[in-house]
Design a protein that fits this description.
Layout: H1 3-15, E1 50-51, H2 58-69, E2 73-74
Parallel strand pairs: 1-2
Length: 75
Amino acid sequence: MDTDKIIQDLNRRFAVFLPEFYQRRIIFWYDEDKEFEDKLDEVVLENAKVIELTGNNVFCRNLYEARRTNEYVQS
């Protein structure tokens, strides 16, 4: 997959208005083969925030901060 195409698709998804009663949109990305691990820093989204799961409790703090903006994406 092309990183630019992925970023364009994510931006397109987050640009769409949320349905009634929805407050946020979350996308989880699981990269089992670590194919995009070195490209995560290149992902800049217009209406979302990228949060990387690292396997420790710092994620909880990051998620709390992200909820305050109501816009984030998880990889």
